[in-house]
User: Fold this.
Amino acid sequence: MGDQQYSETGASCFVYILGSHGATGVRTYVGWTTDLERRLAQHNAGTGARSTRGREWRVIYSERAEDRSSAQSREWRLKKDRAFRKSMARHINCGD
Assistant:
């Protein structure tokens, strides 16, 4: 993906996969944002997506998108690609 800026906000768009290891096993979450650090903090504070509440999340994969439309399209494809998400989930450190 390109390194162009997101023209409406002056910020880059990112597509990301979060990973979490908890009592019920490993989970992944796919999303997009213009501020990856802020969005991760929201997920970990319980103010992100409802499905991410109550877990500690780590970014296990991210990529830059050219614009919002590209980010949303890539997000949709990653959500459907369970094999890729599962391979990325192997990067979650269980002991930290």
